[in-house]
Amino acid sequence: MPETAPDLVPDGDLDPRAPEGDRNPRAPEGATACLVLGDGSVFWGRGFGAHTPAGNAPAAEVCFNTGMTGYQETLTDPSYAGQIITFTFPHVGNVGTNPEDLEAATPVARGLVVKQDVTEPANYRSTRHLDLWLKSHDVPGIAGLDTRALTARIRDGGAPNGVLCFPADGRFDLSALRAQAGAWPGLEGMDLAKEVSCRQPYRWDETEWAWPQGFGRQAAPKHKVVAVDYGAKRNILRCLAAAGLDVTVVPATATAEEILRHQPDGVFLSNGPGDPAATGEYAVPAIREVLEKRVPVFGICLGHQLLGLALGGKTYKLDRGHRGANQPVKDLTTGKVEITSQNHGFAVDERSLPSTVRVTHVSLFDGSNEGLAATDRPAFSVQYHPEASPGPTDSHYLFHRFVDLIETSKGG
Ligand SMILES: NC(=O)CC[C@H](N)C(=O)O
User: Are residues 201 and 113 part of one domain?
Assistant: First the structure.
C-alpha cells in the first residue's frame, strides 16, 4: 500500500490552532482544497482533478454514496447533476478510468470527496488515471478529509448544500465561500433533467460494447420502444436493447405527440437529476397522454417518480437519500428480496397514490416506496436501478417484465 498523508483538520471552525472566535482560520498546512457547507463549517483537504475557477467554485448538494465499486459509473450517472458526491469507500480511483464504464459521455457531478489520496491505477482495463480524467472533464476533487464525519453529518442532519474549492493560487476566501454555499437554493424545486437530456432523437445502437458478465449480447429486436431521456444511463438503454427492444431515445421535453410519432410498442421513462415535481411540469402532461393511449410504460428512478406524479401521486424529498449498491428491496409481487443499486434523493409518497395504483416494491431500509404499478393500465416502475449489477443479476427481470407487458398489450 502506498503511504498516504494523514487526515487534515476536518473542520476549520474546530481547528485548535485557530484563534478563538476566528470564523476564517487559515488553511492548515498541506491543505490545497476545502469543502464549505451551508452551515458555515469547513472541511480541509488536498485537491485533485480540476482546479476551480477563482470566485466560482461549484455549489451543489453534498450527498454520500456507499458503493464499494463503480465510481466511474457513479460520476458519469447524469442523475448526479447538482451534487457533490462523498464516497464512503476509502479507495476511490485505484482502478483508474476507461471508456467502457461511462454512463454518459461526460460526468455531471460537481465534485467528489474521498478519504485516501488517489493512487496510480492498477487494473488492466484502465486507460487513464482518475486525476487526469477529472481534469479533462473539469471536475474537482478533494481527498484527505474525514469522510466518516462528513457522512455522519449528512446522515444526522440531511444532505447540506456546499461548495468545493480547489483554487490554483491556493487562496481561500472563506467568507465568500460560506455566502455562496448558504445562497445555493438546493435541489428542491430544481429541474435539471432537460439540461442533461439529449437534444435530438436518436436510435440506440451499440452492439459492439463489452457486456456485463453473463448478460449476453443484444437479442434481435422484437418490439419498438421510445425511451424518454431525462438523463438516461447508458446501461439502461443497453439492458432494454438486450431484452429484445429496438430503442429510440427522445429528449426530456418531448411531447406525447413527438413520442407517439415513432409508433412505439412501449415507452420507457429514464432516470435523471433534480426534483421530479419540477421536471413534471413538462414530463407529466406527456406521460399522461401516453397512458391514456394505453401504451405500455416502464419507468426507472426519476421515471418512476414521474409516473407516480402522472398517475395522481405526489413526491417528497428524503432527508438523506439512498445512494449505494447494497439497498435491500422487497418485491411484494413475488415476496423476494433484491439487493439493489440506488441513487435518489426524492421518493413517491405512497399515501398520495390513488386506489388505481398498487405498491409493488418497498425499501427494507426505511419502508419508503420502491415500485408501483397501475391497476387500470399497462404501466409500472421502480425507484431503484435494475440495470446495475450490485451483486448477481437480481433485478434484470424487470426488463423482461416490460417485454411481457408489451406482448400482453399487443395480444401476443
Ligand atoms: N437516479 C435518479 O433518477 C434520481 C431521481 C431524482 N433526481 C432523485 O434524486 O430522487
Answer: no
Cα 30 to chain center, whole Å? 32
Q: Does residue 103 sit in the same domain as residue 233?
A: no
- Ligand 1 centroid from CA 333, angstroms: 24
Active site residue 385: yes
3 state SS of 198:
coil
CATH number at residue 259: 3.40.50.880
Query: How far, in Å, are 73, 84, 389, 407 from residue 244 at the CA level?
Result: 24, 36, 19, 12
Instruction: Decide if 80 contacts 104 (C-beta within 8 A).
Output: no
Residue 208 annotated among the catalytic residues of the structure: no
For residue 268, give Cα distances in angstroms to 150, 225, 296.
Answer: 36, 7, 8
Q: Are residues 116 and 231 in the same domain?
A: no
- Closest to 390 in 3D by CA, of 320, 323, 324: 324
Return the amino acid letter for 165.
C
Instruction: List alpha helices for 120-251, DSSP H.
Output: 130-136, 147-157, 174-183, 193-196, 234-242
Atom of ligand 1 nearest to the CA of 347: 10
Per residue in 75-116, pLDDT (tens digit) is 999 999 999 999 999 999 999 999 999 999 999 999 999 999
Rounded Cα–Cα distance for residues 334 and 395 (Å)? 12
Give the separation between CA 23 and CA 11, rounded to whole angstroms: 11
Residues 6+ apart with CB under 8 A from 347: 305, 315, 316, 318, 368, 369, 383
CB of 340 sitting under 6 A from ligand 1? no
Is position 363 annotated in a ligand binding site? no
pTM of the prediction?
Answer: 0.92
With CA atoms as reference, report the closest residue to 284 among 267, 268, 307, 266.
307
Nearest to 142, CA basis, from 154, 131, 151: 131
Domain that holds residue 92: 12-183
ipTM for the predicted complex comes to 0.97
Ligand 1 atom closest to the Cα of residue 315 is 10
Residues 171 and 309 in one domain: no
Active-site residue among 223, 301, 361, 396? Answer: 301
Is 239 an annotated catalytic residue?
Answer: no
Q: Half-sphere exposure of 40 toward its Cβ, with a 13 Å CA cutoff? A: 7
- What's the sign of the alpha-carbon dihedral 51, 53, 59, 60? negative
What is the amino acid identity at position 316? Y
- In tens, the pLDDT along 193-232 reads 999 999 999 999 875 444 444 454 556 788 999 999 999 9
